[in-house]
Amino acid sequence: MTTDRAFLLLRLEGPLQSWGDRSRFWQRGTLPFPTKSGVLGMIFCACGLGGPQRERLALCNALPMTVFELSGKAEKSFLDDMQMIGSAYDKNDPWEKLLIPKTYEGKPAQNVSGSKMTYRLFLQDADFAVILEIPVRYREEFVSGLKCPKWDIYLGRKSCVPSRPVYQGIFGTYEEAFQALTESLEIDDSEKRSVVTKVSETSSEDLEGMLLYDVPVEFGEHKKYVGRYVKVMNLSGKH
Questions:
Q1: Rounded to 5 degrees, what are φ and ψ at 143?
Q2: N or C, which terminus of the chain has less Cβ within 10 Å?
Q3: Is the per-residue pLDDT at 1 higher than 50?
Protein backbone atom coordinates (compact mmCIF):
# COMPACT_ATOMS: atom_id res chain seq x y z
CA MET A 1 0.00 0.00 0.00
CA THR A 2 1.33 3.45 -0.89
CA THR A 3 2.03 5.81 1.97
CA ASP A 4 1.33 9.21 0.41
CA ARG A 5 -2.47 8.78 0.26
CA ALA A 6 -5.02 7.03 2.45
CA PHE A 7 -8.60 5.96 1.72
CA LEU A 8 -11.01 4.69 4.38
CA LEU A 9 -13.67 2.15 3.44
CA LEU A 10 -16.69 2.40 5.74
CA ARG A 11 -19.94 0.46 5.90
CA LEU A 12 -22.95 2.36 7.27
CA GLU A 13 -25.79 -0.05 7.92
CA GLY A 14 -28.52 0.09 10.56
CA PRO A 15 -32.28 -0.12 11.19
CA LEU A 16 -32.42 3.68 11.30
CA GLN A 17 -30.21 6.42 9.88
CA SER A 18 -30.70 10.18 9.71
CA TRP A 19 -28.39 12.57 7.90
CA GLY A 20 -29.48 16.17 8.37
CA ASP A 21 -28.60 18.87 5.85
CA ARG A 22 -30.14 22.26 6.67
CA SER A 23 -33.04 21.20 8.90
CA ARG A 24 -33.22 22.77 12.37
CA PHE A 25 -35.49 23.32 15.33
CA TRP A 26 -38.74 21.27 15.31
CA GLN A 27 -38.63 19.83 11.77
CA ARG A 28 -35.61 17.55 11.36
CA GLY A 29 -35.31 15.98 7.93
CA THR A 30 -32.77 13.62 6.41
CA LEU A 31 -31.03 13.32 3.07
CA PRO A 32 -31.35 9.92 1.34
CA PHE A 33 -27.59 9.36 1.78
CA PRO A 34 -24.87 10.16 4.37
CA THR A 35 -23.54 13.72 4.61
CA LYS A 36 -19.89 14.67 4.77
CA SER A 37 -20.41 16.42 8.11
CA GLY A 38 -22.11 13.32 9.50
CA VAL A 39 -19.35 10.96 8.39
CA LEU A 40 -16.53 13.21 9.64
CA GLY A 41 -18.42 13.80 12.89
CA MET A 42 -18.71 10.04 13.37
CA ILE A 43 -14.97 9.56 12.81
CA PHE A 44 -14.05 12.42 15.15
CA CYS A 45 -16.41 11.00 17.77
CA ALA A 46 -14.78 7.57 17.46
CA CYS A 47 -11.41 9.24 18.11
CA GLY A 48 -12.72 11.21 21.09
CA LEU A 49 -12.11 14.55 19.36
CA GLY A 50 -14.32 17.30 20.79
CA GLY A 51 -14.45 21.04 20.32
CA PRO A 52 -14.15 23.10 17.09
CA GLN A 53 -11.41 21.01 15.41
CA ARG A 54 -10.91 23.68 12.73
CA GLU A 55 -7.42 22.53 11.63
CA ARG A 56 -8.36 18.88 11.22
CA LEU A 57 -11.57 19.77 9.41
CA ALA A 58 -9.74 22.09 7.01
CA LEU A 59 -7.46 19.23 5.96
CA CYS A 60 -10.27 16.67 5.75
CA ASN A 61 -12.64 18.91 3.81
CA ALA A 62 -10.14 19.33 0.98
CA LEU A 63 -10.35 15.58 0.23
CA PRO A 64 -13.21 13.81 -1.61
CA MET A 65 -15.86 11.43 -0.30
CA THR A 66 -17.88 8.96 -2.38
CA VAL A 67 -21.04 7.25 -1.12
CA PHE A 68 -22.50 4.02 -2.51
CA GLU A 69 -26.03 2.95 -1.68
CA LEU A 70 -26.35 -0.84 -1.53
CA SER A 71 -29.41 -2.92 -2.27
CA GLY A 72 -30.81 -4.98 0.61
CA LYS A 73 -33.40 -7.56 1.60
CA ALA A 74 -35.80 -4.74 2.46
CA GLU A 75 -36.25 -1.65 0.33
CA LYS A 76 -35.11 1.62 1.87
CA SER A 77 -37.98 3.74 3.17
CA PHE A 78 -38.59 6.86 5.26
CA LEU A 79 -40.04 7.03 8.78
CA ASP A 80 -41.55 10.29 10.08
CA ASP A 81 -41.40 10.13 13.88
CA MET A 82 -43.19 12.53 16.22
CA GLN A 83 -41.35 13.16 19.50
CA MET A 84 -42.15 15.18 22.60
CA ILE A 85 -39.31 17.09 24.26
CA GLY A 86 -39.59 18.19 27.89
CA SER A 87 -42.99 16.59 28.40
CA ALA A 88 -44.49 15.84 31.85
CA TYR A 89 -41.49 17.00 33.88
CA ASP A 90 -42.13 18.52 37.30
CA LYS A 91 -40.56 21.98 37.43
CA ASN A 92 -40.61 21.84 41.24
CA ASP A 93 -38.29 18.82 41.19
CA PRO A 94 -34.69 20.13 40.90
CA TRP A 95 -33.57 17.16 38.78
CA GLU A 96 -36.57 17.06 36.44
CA LYS A 97 -36.38 20.83 36.01
CA LEU A 98 -33.01 20.40 34.30
CA LEU A 99 -34.71 18.40 31.52
CA ILE A 100 -37.25 21.09 30.64
CA PRO A 101 -36.24 23.05 27.48
CA LYS A 102 -35.05 26.60 28.13
CA THR A 103 -34.14 29.60 26.03
CA TYR A 104 -30.55 30.08 24.81
CA GLU A 105 -30.05 32.35 27.84
CA GLY A 106 -31.05 29.55 30.21
CA LYS A 107 -34.34 31.22 31.15
CA PRO A 108 -37.61 29.26 31.62
CA ALA A 109 -39.64 28.49 28.52
CA GLN A 110 -42.52 30.79 27.66
CA ASN A 111 -45.24 28.16 28.01
CA VAL A 112 -46.15 26.44 31.28
CA SER A 113 -44.55 23.03 30.77
CA GLY A 114 -41.78 23.83 28.31
CA SER A 115 -42.91 20.88 26.19
CA LYS A 116 -42.19 20.91 22.48
CA MET A 117 -43.49 18.63 19.72
CA THR A 118 -40.93 17.74 17.04
CA TYR A 119 -41.00 15.76 13.81
CA ARG A 120 -37.92 13.76 12.81
CA LEU A 121 -37.38 11.90 9.57
CA PHE A 122 -35.35 8.68 9.46
CA LEU A 123 -34.13 6.25 6.80
CA GLN A 124 -35.21 2.65 7.43
CA ASP A 125 -33.28 -0.44 6.28
CA ALA A 126 -30.63 1.61 4.45
CA ASP A 127 -27.13 0.31 3.72
CA PHE A 128 -24.26 2.46 2.46
CA ALA A 129 -20.56 2.13 1.76
CA VAL A 130 -18.29 5.18 1.91
CA ILE A 131 -14.84 5.71 0.44
CA LEU A 132 -13.27 8.74 2.13
CA GLU A 133 -9.81 10.08 1.45
CA ILE A 134 -8.19 11.26 4.68
CA PRO A 135 -5.00 13.15 5.55
CA VAL A 136 -2.15 10.68 5.85
CA ARG A 137 -1.06 12.26 9.14
CA TYR A 138 -4.33 11.13 10.75
CA ARG A 139 -4.39 7.62 9.27
CA GLU A 140 -3.37 5.70 12.38
CA GLU A 141 -5.49 7.85 14.69
CA PHE A 142 -8.66 7.47 12.59
CA VAL A 143 -8.20 3.73 12.07
CA SER A 144 -7.55 3.15 15.78
CA GLY A 145 -10.63 5.17 16.73
CA LEU A 146 -12.93 3.35 14.29
CA LYS A 147 -11.65 -0.05 15.43
CA CYS A 148 -12.10 0.81 19.12
CA PRO A 149 -14.26 3.97 19.47
CA LYS A 150 -13.58 6.19 22.46
CA TRP A 151 -17.10 7.63 22.28
CA ASP A 152 -20.23 5.95 20.94
CA ILE A 153 -20.77 6.40 17.20
CA TYR A 154 -24.06 6.75 15.37
CA LEU A 155 -25.42 6.92 11.84
CA GLY A 156 -26.37 10.57 12.03
CA ARG A 157 -28.57 11.08 15.07
CA LYS A 158 -27.84 9.48 18.42
CA SER A 159 -30.74 7.03 18.15
CA CYS A 160 -29.22 5.45 15.01
CA VAL A 161 -26.86 2.64 16.01
CA PRO A 162 -24.80 0.72 13.38
CA SER A 163 -25.76 -2.93 12.91
CA ARG A 164 -22.32 -3.98 11.62
CA PRO A 165 -18.73 -2.77 12.12
CA VAL A 166 -18.25 0.59 10.42
CA TYR A 167 -14.53 0.21 9.67
CA GLN A 168 -13.86 -1.97 6.62
CA GLY A 169 -10.24 -1.16 5.84
CA ILE A 170 -7.63 1.44 4.87
CA PHE A 171 -6.13 1.53 1.35
CA GLY A 172 -3.54 3.41 -0.66
CA THR A 173 -5.80 4.17 -3.64
CA TYR A 174 -9.48 4.72 -4.36
CA GLU A 175 -9.41 1.77 -6.77
CA GLU A 176 -8.12 -0.59 -4.07
CA ALA A 177 -10.86 0.52 -1.69
CA PHE A 178 -13.57 0.02 -4.32
CA GLN A 179 -12.17 -3.40 -5.22
CA ALA A 180 -12.32 -4.39 -1.54
CA LEU A 181 -15.96 -3.29 -1.41
CA THR A 182 -16.78 -5.29 -4.54
CA GLU A 183 -15.07 -8.41 -3.20
CA SER A 184 -16.81 -8.12 0.17
CA LEU A 185 -20.20 -8.02 -1.55
CA GLU A 186 -19.29 -11.11 -3.61
CA ILE A 187 -18.11 -13.02 -0.54
CA ASP A 188 -21.23 -12.18 1.44
CA ASP A 189 -23.40 -13.71 -1.26
CA SER A 190 -26.18 -14.68 1.17
CA GLU A 191 -27.29 -11.04 1.30
CA LYS A 192 -27.02 -10.60 -2.50
CA ARG A 193 -26.24 -6.89 -2.22
CA SER A 194 -25.04 -4.67 -5.02
CA VAL A 195 -24.31 -1.00 -5.63
CA VAL A 196 -27.46 0.80 -6.78
CA THR A 197 -26.55 4.50 -6.36
CA LYS A 198 -23.30 6.46 -6.38
CA VAL A 199 -22.96 9.93 -4.84
CA SER A 200 -19.72 11.66 -5.82
CA GLU A 201 -18.40 15.18 -5.49
CA THR A 202 -18.52 17.45 -8.54
CA SER A 203 -18.28 21.13 -9.47
CA SER A 204 -20.76 23.98 -9.86
CA GLU A 205 -20.37 23.66 -13.65
CA ASP A 206 -21.97 20.20 -13.62
CA LEU A 207 -25.61 20.59 -14.71
CA GLU A 208 -26.51 17.49 -12.70
CA GLY A 209 -24.77 18.79 -9.56
CA MET A 210 -26.70 19.38 -6.34
CA LEU A 211 -25.56 21.92 -3.75
CA LEU A 212 -25.31 20.69 -0.15
CA TYR A 213 -24.25 22.68 2.89
CA ASP A 214 -22.72 19.72 4.70
CA VAL A 215 -19.00 20.56 4.77
CA PRO A 216 -18.07 21.29 8.40
CA VAL A 217 -15.74 24.21 9.01
CA GLU A 218 -16.14 24.11 12.78
CA PHE A 219 -17.67 21.63 15.21
CA GLY A 220 -18.44 22.27 18.87
CA GLU A 221 -20.82 24.85 20.32
CA HIS A 222 -20.82 27.16 17.30
CA LYS A 223 -21.02 24.87 14.26
CA LYS A 224 -20.23 26.28 10.82
CA TYR A 225 -20.68 24.72 7.39
CA VAL A 226 -19.98 25.56 3.76
CA GLY A 227 -21.33 24.09 0.54
CA ARG A 228 -20.17 21.50 -1.97
CA TYR A 229 -21.68 20.04 -5.13
CA VAL A 230 -22.51 16.34 -5.44
CA LYS A 231 -23.81 14.23 -8.30
CA VAL A 232 -26.19 11.31 -7.72
CA MET A 233 -25.95 8.48 -10.26
CA ASN A 234 -28.44 5.61 -10.49
CA LEU A 235 -26.50 2.40 -11.23
CA SER A 236 -29.35 -0.09 -10.79
CA GLY A 237 -31.11 0.61 -14.08
CA LYS A 238 -34.34 1.42 -12.20
CA HIS A 239 -35.97 4.86 -12.20
A1: -65, -45
A2: C
A3: no
